[in-house]
Amino acid sequence: MNETMLAVLGFATIIMIIVLLLRNVTVPALAFAGVSTVTSVILVATGTFTVEEMGEFIASGVAGVHSTAALFIFSVLFFGIMTDVGMFDRIINALMKKVGSNVVGVALMTCIIAMIGHLDGGGASTFLITIPAMLPVYKRLNMRPTTLLLICVTAMGVMNLLPWGGPTMRSATVLGIDPNELWRQLLPMQVVGVVIALATAVFWGFVEKKRGAGAETAPQGIVKAEEYDALEEKTEDAAENNLARPKLFAFNLILTLAVIVCLVFVKVPSYYIFMVGCVIALLVNYPGAKLQNKIIKSHSGPALMMASTILAAGVFLGVLEETEIMNHMANVLATFIPQSMGRFLPLIIGVLSVPLTLLFCTDSYFFGLLPVLISIGNQFGVNPAHTAIAMVVCRNCATFISPVVPATFLGVGLAGVEIKDHIKASFFWIWGVSIVCLISGILLGVIHF
User: Pick from 12, 39, 44, 422: CA 20 to 30 A from residue 120's CA?
Assistant: First the structure.
């Protein structure tokens, strides 16, 4: 099978998976595993690869995401334990006293937490820091979890431009320059992006408020004292059940903060940090094998569902990446750019970056598509850095709505949102944000033709 046919097969595979997900035909795990298997059979039947080779490709793909699957299992268990012990109830009540029914304040707080959480450049850790902390508040105020995700991914897309972020490092590698040098060039666009992310939080806060969020509390952002008394009584009542541990609140809060700090600063696998957190939390809060077994089983459903999805997505990525099908797809797309439009290449790829992010993983996008586009731009005197900056900035906006980015599944799983609903709610807004960032880059002279 020639390169063009491999590219067509790749597009057909991705389109089929997207259709299955958007039409809610099946759960994501079955869509990824099933369609990828059909693609593998076609590749073997046409003599392109052997069964043994496809097996190796699939194993490589799964190996690339198994740490994310383990991370999700133990993070769900850890935060589940913290919910059972009643720690989040206390925190929520404290937050509610500060913001009351100020829906816009909650939205803005979400954006700031996501920005701070993403300083390490890790999408998974940012979701784990932001969503469990804010989701209960959103539920209490009747705000949609899709809005929580939209604000999160907008903030994360902007912060992911830091020089130690994956996309910036990959682009700098292709350009053969230091990541800090590339970052200094795109910094003005990142500043604009930060402003847009904050504005996004404020805007969607007002949208949620308009649809009635926070209306159950007293007007003008003030919650009646008796309502907080009721909340506190509810927390005290919860303390009477077998799982709540109000006397261990300080310990559990310190443990949670320690886990978060370790996620950011300690250079060990994130899933191991949560493993240790779970060990300590279970031993202190629920001593005894019988009770610990009960707690683990109570949280096994969501963990198993999302872990299976992530592993199945690994099969999909292995089939398309290891066979270099994604690179062939990049080459085919590059041929559709008219030669006469070559000097406008940064503008073209910037506008198309968000839709392409749904099709290409980070590696194939920067290591597969970027070199091809740079070679095309060189024929028209286009500065390679300008093409790279357009791709980095505009693509980053949509990183965490893409179904080929494993962290996306972690985010939607934590928020309890189906990926199709996340994409529907975020796609066009994120695309608009990326175009505004692109225009700002042109106006500020970061990108020119």
Answer: 422
Structure tokens at 330: 């990049």
Kindly state the DSSP code that residue 101 receives in the 8-state scheme. Answer: T
Question: Cα 203 from chain centroid?
Answer: 21
* Residue 393 near residue 193, CB atoms below 8 Å: yes
Task: Choose between 372 and 171: higher pLDDT.
Answer: 171
Highest mean pLDDT among 63-67, 84-88, 338-342, 425-429: 425-429
CB 16, CB 35: distance < 8 Å: yes
- Other beta carbons within 10 Å of 293: 12
| Distance between CA atoms of residues 39 and 55, nearest Å | 13
Q: Which residue has the tokens 């159950």?
A: 216
The tally of CA atoms less than 13 A away on the side-chain side of residue 86 is 22
Tell me if 108 sits within 8 A of 202, measured CB to CB: yes
On the question of pLDDT at 220 being above 60, the answer is no
Q: What is the pLDDT of residues 76-123, one digit of tens each?
A: 788 888 888 888 777 766 766 776 678 898 999 899 888 887 876 678
* Tokens of residue 270, six digits: 């994130």
In whole angstroms, give the CA distance from residue 64 to residue 36: 16
How far apart, in whole angstroms, are the C-alpha atoms of residue 262 and residue 382? 43
326, exposed or middle or buried, with CB in 10 Å at 0-12, 13-18, 19+? buried
Burial bucket for residue 206 (CB in 10 Å: 0-12, 13-18, 19+): middle
Nearest to 398 by CA among 349, 350, 355: 355
Residues 6+ away with beta carbon under 8 Å from 279: none
Q: How far apart are CA 217 and CA 261, in angstroms?
A: 34
| Residue matched to tokens 């980015």 | 405
pLDDT bin (cut points 50, 70, 90) of residue 57 is very high
Tokens describing residue 196:
């847009």
3-state secondary structure of 103: helix
**How is residue 287 annotated by DSSP?**
-
Give dist(CA 36, CA 42) in Å, integer: 10
